[in-house]
Amino acid sequence: MKTYIIDTNCFIQAHQASYPLDVAHSFWIKFKLMADEGKIISIDKVKKELFKNDDSLKDWCSKNLPKDFFKEFSSSAMPEYAKLSSWANSHKQYKQSAKTIFLDSERADAFLAAFASVDSSKLVVVTQEVSAPDSKSNIKLPDACNEVHVHCVNLMQMFRELEETF
């Protein structure tokens, strides 16, 4: 069984645009159920990004996600992070600002791809970002995942692959 690792933007875009907490109850009930079943997880860097805002999304996550939902980024993933760092820095197409943002230790993207690449046969990254391999100003998570051979999908693709409805 595959486990899906959720990016910060999946939470934020769902909450702010597609599935607001006060309107789309069935989405959030399904999300909680999938988390309880271990079908979806995330990492500590995503938690940090989500919890920097004191809002209803932070409250929902605190009250509804299992205590072990946000996995600690382990040292076993550091070699994969180093590979991603080398890959990003070696691409002359990317502006230095894109590299700096992508490799910022406070941002989750590179860590998500590295975490998933440790066991890419079982772990899938879920993000609302869209691949942009020719971009100069941004390094997109799907492109980083592609580099380390990690399957990357958007939120709706994840629901389809899991055959989940809400």
What would you say this structure looks like, in words?
The chain contains nine helices and five strands, in the order βααβααβαααβαβα. The chain is globular and about 45 Å long. By secondary structure, it is α/β, with parallel strands linked by helices.
Write the layout of secondary structure elements.
Elements: E1 3-6, H1 8-18, H2 25-36, E2 40-43, H3 44-51, H4 56-64, E3 70-71, H5 78-90, H6 96-102, H7 109-117, E4 123-126, H8 141-147, E5 152-153, H9 155-162
Parallel strand pairs: 1-2, 1-4, 2-3, 4-5
Helix pairs in contact: 5-7
Number of helices: 9
What ranges have pLDDT less than 50 throughout 5 or more consecutive residues?
none
CATH class: Alpha Beta
What average pLDDT do the residues reach? Answer: 96
The tally of domains stands at: 1
Widest sheet: strand ordering = 3-2-1-4-5
Structural class: alpha/beta
Instruction: Quickly give the CATH architecture.
Output: 3-Layer(aba) Sandwich
Alpha carbon gyration radius: 16 Å
> N-to-C terminal Cα separation, in Å?
21 Å
Major sheet: 5 strands, parallel
